[in-house]
Amino acid sequence: MAYLQDDPPLPPLATLFPYLEHDPVELPAGLDPFTVTTSTGFLPSRSPLVDLPPTFDALSQIVREMPVTKEDGHPGLLAEYKLGPLIDSGALPDLTDAVRDIIAAENPDLEIVTALFRDYSFLASSFLLEPCWETWSKNHTAGYGLGRQTLPRCIAGPLMRTAEVLDIPAFMSYAASYALYNYKLVDPKLGTSVYSNLRLIRGFENGLDPTSSEAGFILTHIHMVQETGPLVDGAVSLLKAVEADDVSAGKASLQTMLKAMHRIEVSMENMWSHSLPKDYISYRTFIFGITNQSMFPNGVVYEGENNGKPLFFRGESGANDSIIPLLDHLCEIPMPKNPLMDILVDFRNYRPKPHRTFLAYVMSKAAELGVRAFCVKDMQLAQLYLKLLDHVRSFRWRHWLFAREYIIKRTSHPTATGGSPIVTWLPNQLMAVMDLMESVYRDSGLEDKARAGDSEEWKFVKGLMANVEEQHVKLDREVKKYCEERGV
Q1: pTM (2 decimals)?
Q2: Annotated binding site for heme b: which residue ranges?
Q3: How far apart are CA 466 and CA 458, in angstroms?
Q4: What ranges do the domains of the chain cover?
Q5: Per residue in 45-96, pLDDT tens?
Q6: Which of 85, 267, 341, 429 has the fewest CB atoms lying closer than 10 Å?
Q7: CATH class of this structure's domain 13-486
Q8: Calpha distance 246→298 (Å, rounded)
């Protein structure tokens, strides 16, 4: 919830986030793996668990056999559309009680719970979307057809119980299953900073081959997020600087975040070579959700859950990453109040609880302190603030290019995997940050200084804003074109 003027001051940071500045090796065992720290940022504080407890061997065996291409290179269950019949045959026992035993502990091990959630959510998506994969594989122009409309009790029960403990929706999510809790290290000593050291734990199509586009798509996200420790550190430092009215510390904090965002965007740009646009539509079949999708017009019934009524969940989406939301909240970027913004707010529910709690704190604290006002009180601060906003613009612009080249030009399916309108949703947020940049440039005095100055720094600022103006026009033109082509 956003901070209101009459609200009491928020509690101290250390009270709300006691582990924020701790070394991950000092964290208690079994803590939520997505506990945010200034060293690991939004990545799990420890590498994800690969193996489940022996009680879940039947599940482990099935998810290993499940991918279209298994780790050994041989065809898996999805290659021949055999997963559904296998589950229907009773090959997977209902292990809901075994999950209950784990979560009934006084301090349940949330690393185990998250690993179970990851594997059950991979199985759930594979089971529900297998018919869509078959339809698409046999005729790429036929669309996706219908998915399975009921999730069996042996999957639904454990998935619901783990989701309840983690306080996230009971469906495939970006952080807790598909991407950020889905990697292992070839050499633990090298860590996550070396891209070639990363491998997937689970995949749908060819993702267990590290050279595949599916692997590249997920591993690129992991490699981006492993740079977020300094970003979180800079955000926390900026809040402290604003509270102390320390301009010098504020500048240092912004510089820290600018360096972090540069590294993040360098990793992001590598998506083009790690994951080819022509391949995305194929493995994308398995990450659709069960709301606002033609494959699930009435949602999905989870056997034994919700009194037999269908459930509706959004699919996996990179929009659930926490990098840009952190900067949205910290920089106080205003978003338009429209139905597209409602989707943005709904996406928050799909982030891990520690991410949500931290982001909500930053949003409220930034409003309480007036971060945006602080950042335009000094010309150097205003320049740094404008450059940080430009990273938000650049990140969102690249995301738009990905959507355009990987999806819009290759399929007429109207919705993204998360259930948002594929053409209009990203531009909604991109235009918002460009509007703020133009406002800051004009109202802070930067524009007047830039017009009068001829130093390299002022030339850079003028060029930055010229690019914003050009992209604003280009984006508006592209959105209108794609909307007309699709009859939106």
Answers
A1: 0.94
A2: 399
A3: 12
A4: 13-486
A5: 999 999 999 999 999 999 999 999 999 999 999 999 999 999 999 999 999 9
A6: 85
A7: mainly alpha
A8: 54
